[in-house]
Design goal:
The structure is a homodimer of 334-residue chains.
Chain A (H helix, E strand, L loop, with lengths): L3 H8 L3 H8 L7 H13 L6 H8 L4 E6 L5 H16 L3 E6 L4 H11 L6 E4 L3 H6 L3 H8 L4 E4 L9 E5 L1 H14 L5 E5 L5 H16 L5 E4 L6 H11 L5 E4 L2 H11 L11 E5 L2 H4 L7 E4 L2 H18 L9 E4 L2 E3 L6
Chain A binds a DNA duplex (16 and 16 nucleotides) through α2 and α4.
DNA sequence: GTGAAAGCGCTAACAA
DNA sequence: TTGTTAGCGCTTTCAC
């Protein structure tokens, strides 16, 4: 990489002259400016980012910590973050906590050494079950702002972007009930994380309000989803509705129904949290609760960048943005 | 963030003493060392990464450019890269080219300013169709090594990690033929990228060798996969096998078969490039061609880090590693 | 209009 | 054993 020094030497001027010329300073003469710029262009000069970061005490880099990159929703949020960050001249350093508290702590620690200006993260499962939040508070007190999305810790003071999980399943369940479904099962493989719990509660409330009994099928890591759904159908012949808290179980619920001569949606309606690209995996296509993942990511990035630009201005004035889900009807519901 | 300067001041010693003490230099007295370390620990001192990078002229950061984060395979490779990089003390800056040549160029340009020590990337679709490779060559000539994976440019001299795409579909097709399948269709939504073409050729060769006619269903962006598969089944009643170049069409091929009273795998066998977690989306589960994505990512990271450590040593001595696929049988094939 | 010098935080060669 | 100094690449104040 060419440096200012080298350009200065070749031109027989001082380093500061070159720097100013490149930054269009009025101090420098028209002619000199032109000469400098030409040479710089010919060498494809680009100011060294590291030096700039050191000088300006900010990196224009955001640390993103996500629990699981193979989760379609989280990947999509990451996409949204990346795009929005780029628009504002920021890069993102990605860490995958893999649902582990330790890895989450490590990542936070490791990047809190000047590598990034702030964080965007969704909390690891283990962190939520152990209810640990000190590492977040510490990071914030070190002057590094955090924006949490989806799985958030309400006891940490920071900006947040969340989904209306409770209402989403509440409404989805109600819509099934409105179509005369009576025996609706809730299927979830995320019952131990915050959003999973909220979704279950939304379902429960809707069912109880209508005087209907609730039934929950919990799928654990390592379980065979197809087997569990199969057994469910075998045991309870009168199931006529499924609300799924994750994308996999909704798809499986539809495809497996046919093994039991249940027509979808005539005999059984299925709706689940998912995205368009996954909904085509079932025949008929799954009616989904869309979370607008990209928008969530973009919003999180906006909040962080705003805070970074404001300096300490908006201290103690934190936003919680709720991005509403949308029920997108396909052929798996009436 | 605490700096050496502040620690030095508080201890009444010089900056270099503090630096040496923290780096366990033998030069510094036992006692001083202890005092320094204690104070540093109490302040949770961490050396400023940016200053270190500037000083040592390397960032311990890898730029990763992937075409599509929502592609399960690519996301999994990213996971592998991240983990391996972390093991070696590297962070990753992720850019998503979104299959765009321009964004790919921009990312390369933008990070080639000292932000990263090298790149790991898979080539964007547009870049492949336009067959552009100059931006890669330029980056390399600037002293930033590149490792390409999956979709690679053979004309660029750099390390590569690829899949045995041709053999994978060749073998998969052969295995269907061995079970007396005669009318096997190849379905692909990636026929315009390098790996897609190779996969199609593997299928073609296997079919032609056996004197069987070939048939390819191409699915374009924006097409309704379910509709296209449906029409295919409607028109050609005797289809008894499907080889899919991507994960979606394989899953759809299975789930849709039932609409035509075709039993899987009795009447029709389906095999496709995919991963375990997606294969459960079909009933019965899809027999998959596993690509070992995490391993690919890890290998790519290893190659890059090796090269970074070797300096210019292994110049002009580039590796192409082939990570063999594995055919994992499920219930969608005999 | 141009240049010298300080300083961001750190390491390391050299001096004391 | 400890301190001084230079320098990584850059911006910016201040002097000329």
């Amino acid at each position: 990489m060419v440096t200012l020094k080298q350009l200065a030497k070749e031109l027989g001027v001082s380093i500061s002259t070159v720097s100013k010329a490149l930054n269009n300073s009025e101090e420098i003469g028209e002619e000199t400016r032109k000469k400098v710029k030409e040479l710089a262009a010919s060498y494809n000069y680009k100011p060294n980012k590291v030096a700039l970061s050191l000088k300006q005490n900010r990196t224009k880099t955001i640390g993103v910590i996500i629990p699981d990159i193979l989760n379609h929703f989280l990947a999509k949020v990451l996409f949204g973050i990346e795009r929005e960050a780029n628009l504002h001249g920021y890069n993102i350093i990605t860490c995958i906590s893999n649902e582990s508290l330790q890895k989450e702590k490590d990542s936070l620690q490791l990047l809190a050494n000047g590598s990034v200006d702030g964080f965007i993260l969704s909390i690891a499962e283990e962190t939520q079950t152990k209810n640990e939040i000190n590492h977040f508070k510490e990071t914030i007190s070190q002057g590094l702002p955090i924006v949490m999305f989806d799985r958030v810790a309400h006891d940490v003071k920071c900006d947040k972007v969340i989904v209306d999980d409770f209402e989403a399943t509440y409404n989805a369940t109600k819509s099934l009930i409105a179509k005369k479904r009576k025996h609706i099962v809730f299927i979830s493989n995320i019952d131990n994380i915050s959003v999973g719990k909220l979704r279950e509660r939304g379902y429960n409330k809707a069912m109880l309000e209508e005087g209907l009994g609730t039934q929950v099928l919990r799928i654990k890591k390592g379980d065979d989803t197809q087997q569990k759904v199969k057994r469910l159908y075998k045991k309870y012949k009168d199931i006529d509705g499924v609300v799924s808290a994750d994308s996999t179980s909704g798809v499986v619920a539809i495809n497996m129904a046919r093994d039991f001569k249940k027509k979808v949606p005539k005999d059984i309606s299925v709706v689940g949290f998912s995205s368009k690209s996954v909904s085509v995996h079932s025949v008929p296509k799954l009616t989904i609760i869309r979370q607008h993942a990209k928008k969530i990511g973009a919003k999180a990035a906006q909040l962080l960048i705003e805070r970074l630009n404001n300096g300490a201005a908006s201290k103690d004035d934190y936003t919680t943005k709720i991005v509403k889900t949308t029920l997108v009807k396909s052929k798996s519901t009436l």
